[in-house]
Amino acid sequence: MNLNETTVTKDFHVEAPLTPKRTRWEEFWLLFGQNRLAILGLLIFILFFCCAITGLFLTSGSKPIFDPSLVRLEEKLRPPFSKPNLDLLEPDQVPTLNFYLMGTDDLGRDVFARMLQGAWVSLTVGFVAVGISVLIGIFMGGIAGYFGQHYLKIDHILLTLLLVSGTGLIILDVIRFGAALLLLCLAYIVYAVLTRHRSKKKASPSWGAMFHINAVSVDTLIMRIVDIMLCFPSFFLILTVVAILPASIYNIMIVIGLTSWMGTTRFVRAEFLSLREQDFVAAAKALGIGNFRIIFRHMMPNAVAPVLVSATIGIASAILTEAGLSFLGFGVPPPHATWGNILSNGKNFIFDAPWLTFIPGITILIVVLSFNLFGEGLRDVLNPKLRERH
Amino acid sequence: MKSKNKNNPIILCVKDLKKYFPIRRGFFQKISGWVNAVDGVSFEIERGKTMGLVGESGCGKTTVARLILKLLALDEGKIIYQGIDISGFSEKEMKPHRKEMQIVFQDPFGSLNPRMTVGQSVEEGLRILGLKSHGMRKARLEKLMEMVGMSPDSTDRYPHEFSGGQRQRIGIARALSVEPSLIICDEPISALDVSIQAQIINLLKDLQDQLGLSYLFISHDLNVVGYLCNTIAVMYMGQVMEYASAEDIFDNPHHPYTRSLLAAVPDSEPGKKMEITLPKEDVPDSPAALQGCKYRSMCSMEAPRCRKEQVLFEKIGEKHFVRCWKAMKK
Q1: Residues A153-175, buried b or exposed e (16+ Cβ, 10 A)?
Q2: B124, B162, B201 member nearest A17 (Cβ)
Q3: 8 Å CB contact between B313 and B233
């Protein structure tokens, strides 16, 4: 190779890039469109989304178009598509569609209206719970993956424990003891700051330094917490927590969210561990970009794909968990309809009025299935290694 | 180029750099040994000049690059950049100095963020440089792309739309974005086609002439290093075996390893038989073999003294250092 002979002029321009210009979004749709089941899942998901939102408007307010809590005792357990007996009903008790699309339940309430109301509950529970779990998961996983090799000092851990227990005691009305713990913390912090200033000059060992030794790495701590959380049978944990807390839809969302972040954490940590060693992250560090910008601008976009997939499937399982809780009577309090408590009511009349069981049951099945299909389609598109199989 | 200390003729001085990686074994991850990845590396780079770092794969070249950039914490030694000792700097202290030294990576596929457009990747550096307005950044970005021979309209494309050589140009543009004085080229051409290699090398040379850059050029291709570099350091198993000007290395090599490297360079004349002294055994890794001279098990002139004594890196001429006592006696 004789390099002296090859010369490149300075205003040398490289010809157009290799492939036709196609954005990632277009490429995504091209691949996603090939997976028919995933498309079906997406369509059902969109339909469900629209139903839930229109359902919210149609069933709420002081005079809703579909009243889910209107009791017509004369019209109980009517099968789907049956006409109401207009002689027995007051004018304002007549259903809006002039027939019962999905029948009525044991109190003569319109099941269609109740399903619409329940759709919104399922949707919000699914999204908010998964939102919470994804946020926690990304945060914990990001820290474990990026700062995992840092070590926590024993004194810092002790301090955090004291602070947390002190605050907890004050909240639980054990004010004197809690305040004592907090004061202890404060005293230690003041002491630590003072000795640090002194030790910079004299470098004399203080007794505080005795505890200033490495205990566990951040990665170990977070991943062991994940392991512990995974050991709990989470459905029973939720049952216990819901039994203590006042029954409300928000509590259920939060509890489901707080017990399902472990999978996301593991995914994000694994992605971060491999991304951290990539050259482009080293280049970003060499440029002098800050840690947080590297995490959120450079690494996170490369790590969201598996998170998105697990979130989609997580929504399905959150909907299922909420339905299960409502079925057992721990969910949303009774006047409000959810798919779970419609199913739960219906089971008493399964031979007389099978639609009360089958309609919510099959709806839950279809929605959960569509989310799972959509999630798997996403995974296939976003993971180039699995693409070849189709 | 902006730099605080323009008079200092030595832009980077590395003194006896050492980095050990622990080998962890067993249930408690106890440290059972150490890998001496970099075990005594010293060299200097003059302003506006190029220093070549050559050696076989796994000898610690890339680790040296990462140590200099402080992407890895060093265990011993000194890194003096423009008269400032940066070896003890914390991450915070290092930040203002980061933009002075940049790196171009070997793998053009892993070195660009696949989720950012080329423009965004290069703009990150311009942000660091302190160009606040979007217009200023855009103008500078187009200038940079032109400097490395890319059309300005390629800035809103993603890395996967480019070929290896084009990506390497983009990597160079990103390195140039913060207006550094020193660029560490970590085997920038070994993943490219031969014809593209020539383009990239010429680009690097042109940029050096235009901007007065200094290079640390890491490679295992002696031809390229001979063409591009003013001084050369030859590394073997984490140690610099010989450090001299390019002419001295090629015309007057002292260390047996340098000689065997030069002998292994294929001649341009086809059919000509090469005289290669093959190493006696494979690269040693047992602790006993690591005592004394690291090269002795492969060396053709091994003596009992090589087995016992730690060989020192000593001066034998004007800017000519060798780590071999036999070569010094000559």
Answers
A1: eebeeebeeebeebeebbeeeee
A2: B162
A3: no
Nearest-CB residue to A8 (from B96, B99, B203):
B203
Kindly tell me if the per-residue pLDDT of A55 is higher than 70.
Answer: yes
Q: Which two tokens stand for residue A268?
A: 């994000």
Residue A86 CA, chain-centre distance (Å), reads 46
For A73-114, what is each residue's pLDDT tens digit?
777 778 888 887 777 777 777 777 778 888 888 888 888 888
Q: Nearest to residue B328, comparing CAs of B301, B304, B292?
A: B301
**Cα distance between residue A251 and residue A259, in whole Å:** 12
Task: Check if A11 contacts B (Cβ < 8 Å).
Answer: yes
- Rounded to a whole number, what is the distance in Å from the CA of B239 to chain A's nearest CA? 24
Asked if B110 lies within 8 A of A279 by C-beta distance, the reply is yes
According to the model, what pLDDT value does residue B104 have? 93
Rounded to whole angstroms, the Cα distance separating B215 from B230 reads 10
Residue A204 has pLDDT above 70, yes or no: no
pTM: 0.79
Q: How far apart are CA B245 and CA B229, in angstroms?
A: 8
Q: What is the ipTM of this complex?
A: 0.86
Q: Do A287 and B177 touch (CB under 8 A)?
A: yes
